[in-house]
Specification:
Elements: E1 2-5, H1 16-28, E2 35-38, H2 48-56, E3 59-66, E4 72-80, E5 85-89, H3 90-94, H4 112-124, E6 128-132, H5 143-148, E7 152-154, E8 173-175, E9 187-192, H6 204-208, H7 216-237, H8 249-261, E10 264-267, H9 268-276, H10 278-282, E11 287-295, H11 304-314, E12 319-326, E13 340-343, H12 351-356, H13 358-374
Parallel strand pairs: 1-2, 1-11, 5-6, 6-9, 9-10, 11-12, 12-13
Antiparallel strand pairs: 3-4, 4-5, 7-8
Helix pairs in contact: 1-13
GO molecular function, one term: glycerate kinase activity
Keywords: Kinase, Transferase
Protein name: Glycerate kinase
């Protein structure tokens, strides 16, 4: 019996690779006769670089870049020299998890460090870039990234704009003449886990700004600033991408990736499964076990368990989800190919205890799941 183990990370508890090991540990209690394949995954958010490195065997490289507040920080990226492919995770440079809650400022945070990572990939000779956009602390529409790659954003007096999304309301000139010429030969795929446009009530500022420290007035300021940015960008490029599904990902980085890097926006889980050779792994699997911190109605937008379930359903393989929490709307997952879903907790417990015991609970729940699946089988 072959069991494919492919969880996402469990936020604040376990990275995806550790979650996969815990699930495998629980199943091994049942003895021999089970073939276990561990394939940690991600949906484009934090942890995507680790999943891509595990899936492809790429080199892990590190450089010093600016974080979301302009401070120096070490950030990793991945490199496959034989295929000239680079993997860049936005959250490595501009991630929200690196900031304390009181430091989060959607008005002034920057994606400059992401541009520095892309420049490092170009320096290495990259011909293809896989850019994952989840987990951002930013709402600058990728403006910081553009500056790091050689663009100039000026106000009406010809002065360079300061970092951050709020400053874009003063944007008068977008000078792309200094943009790194190597970008024209770089094929870019951007992994997104949302389909929001850049602006409006479903846009980057309104939906994701509050998570990044933006109050109601800040949201209005940021939305107006991004609208100005979109206007000036459309005039400079002759194309307008503000309504593109996914343009609002990572505070507008989806917009910048498409408009300025020519990126193809792809659901993150699909991109990462493709790199992992997931279809081949599924070919003769008898059961798939996946999971993440929370399964809810929003998971259908492109989270890992749903992407896994859709792929497994196409090959007739049952899928069990192990989730830290089953939140409102999770039952809709059944319609996407989920066979069964189980919460990890074995009784009432505070969140701190659940996080500390995550590996133990995953192992226990995985053992029970496989016991149930194999009951009555010869």
């Amino acid at each position: 019996m072959k069991i494919l183990i492919c969880p996402d990370s469990f936020k604040d508890a376990l990275p995806a690779a550790a979650a996969a090991r815990a699930i495998a540990c629980g199943i091994r209690r049942l003895g021999d006769g089970l073939q276990l394949i561990e394939c940690p995954l991600a949906d484009g958010g934090e942890g995507s670089l680790d999943a891509l490195l595990a899936a492809t065997g790429a080199e892990r490289r590190s450089i010093t870049v600016q974080d979301a507040l302009g401070r120096p920080t070490r950030a990793d990226w991945g490199w496959l020299p034989k295929r000239r492919i680079a993997f860049v995770e936005l959250a490595e440079a501009s991630g929200i998890q690196a900031l304390a809650p009181e430091e989060r400022t959607a008005l002034h945070s920057t994606t400059h460090g992401v541009g520095e990572l892309i420049r490092a990939a170009l320096d290495a000779g990259a011909e293809r870039l896989l850019l994952t956009l989840g987990g951002s602390a930013t709402n600058d529409g990728g403006a910081g990234m553009l500056v790091a790659l050689g663009a100039r954003l000026r106000d009406g007096a010809g002065r360079d704009l300061p970092p951050g999304g709020a400053a874009l309301v003063e944007l008068a000139e977008l000078d792309l003449s200094g943009l790194d010429p190597r970008l024209s030969h770089l094929r870019v795929e951007a992994a997104v886990d949302v389909d929001n446009p850049l602006l409006g009530e479903r846009g980057a500022s309104a939906v994701f700004g509050p998570q990044k420290g933006a109050g109601p007035e800040d949201v209005r300021r940021l939305d107006a600033a991004l609208a100005r940015y979109a206007d000036v960008s459309a005039a400079a490029l002759g194309q307008d991408h503000r309504d593109l599904p996914g343009a609002g990902a990572a505070g507008g980085m989806g917009f910048a990736a498409r408009a300025f890097l020519g990126a193809e926006l792809t659901p993150g889980i699909e991109l990462i499964m493709a790199q992992a050779g997931f279809e081949a792994l599924l070919a003769d699997a008898d059961l798939v076990i996946t999971g993440e911190g929370q399964l809810d109605g929003q998971s259908l937008a492109g989270k890992t368990p749903i992407g896994v379930a859709r792929a497994a359903r196409a090959q007739g393989v049952p899928v069990a989800v192990l989730a830290g929490r089953l939140a409102p709307g999770w039952q809709a997952a059944y319609e996407e190919g989920i066979t069964a879903a189980f919460a990890l907790a074995d009784g009432p417990m505070p969140l701190e205890e659940a996080l500390a015991r995550c590996a133990e609970l995953l192992a226990d729940r995985a053992e029970s799941t496989v016991r149930l699946f194999t009951a009555g089988k010869p």
